[in-house]
Structure formats: structure tokens, C-alpha cells
Amino acid sequence: MSSDFEGYEQDFAVLTAEITNKIARVPRLPPDEKKQMVANVEKQLEEAKELLEQMDLEVREIPPQSRGMYSNRMRSYKQEMGKLETDFKRSRIAYSDEVRNELLGDDGNSSENQVEC
């Protein structure tokens, strides 16, 4: 039983490491690759959520006297998942701002370029 949980833990660790790596790469990619990477990260975040759900189900089947340790680990994994989602949102915002600037021809210094009256 706990071996299933530990297998899910290993899968979760590998997946979150991949997601972290990809999130860090998003801002530096060319626009066409960024769009593809964002879609890929979204898919992997969904997979990670599904793993957490499976792990949660496993924890519920553990006898109450042994459940505490696993519950603490689950809390930690859920916090990690929240951090990944926040980091991804920030990465997407940076990506969106960059795309907006490209479309508008804005170099990010628009307030400095305004003529004072």
C-alpha cells in the first residue's frame, strides 16, 4: 500500500522537476516555442494534480495510526503544487507582456517617450 504512495511520490518528484525547468525556460524562448511550452506545462500541471489526487486516495486507505506522516507529506506536496502554479502564472504574465509589447511596438519605456506639455 505505501509502496503505491511512494511510487506516486517518485512520479510527482520527476514531474515537478520537469515543470520547474520548463517554467524557467518560458521567458527566454522564441514566441512560437513559448506557446508550445506553455501548453506543455499546462498539461504537466494537470498530470501533477492527478497524481496528487491518487496520492490522497492512497493516504485515505492507510490506517489512522500511520496516516499522520503521509498527511504531512501530502500537505507539503500540495504547497509545492501551489507554488508551481503561481510561478507558472508569473511566467505566463511575463510572456503575455512580452507578446503585447511586440504587437504594439512598445519597448517598455512608453512613459519616458511621452512628450511633456
TrEMBL record:
Keyword Transmembrane helix among record annotations: yes
GO cellular component, as recorded: cytoplasm; endomembrane system; organelle membrane
Record's bilayer topology term: Single-pass type IV membrane protein
Domain spans labelled Vesicle transport v-SNARE N-terminal: 1-91
Localization, UniProt: Endomembrane system
Coiled coil: 34-61
InterPro entries assigned to the protein according to its UniProt record, in alphabetical order: SNARE, v-SNARE_N_sf, Vesicle_trsprt_v-SNARE_N
Membership in a protein family: Belongs to the VTI1 family.
Protein name: Vesicle transport through interaction with t-SNAREs homolog 1A
Species name: Bos taurus
Biological classification of the source: Eukaryota, Metazoa, Chordata, Craniata, Vertebrata
Gene designation: VTI1A
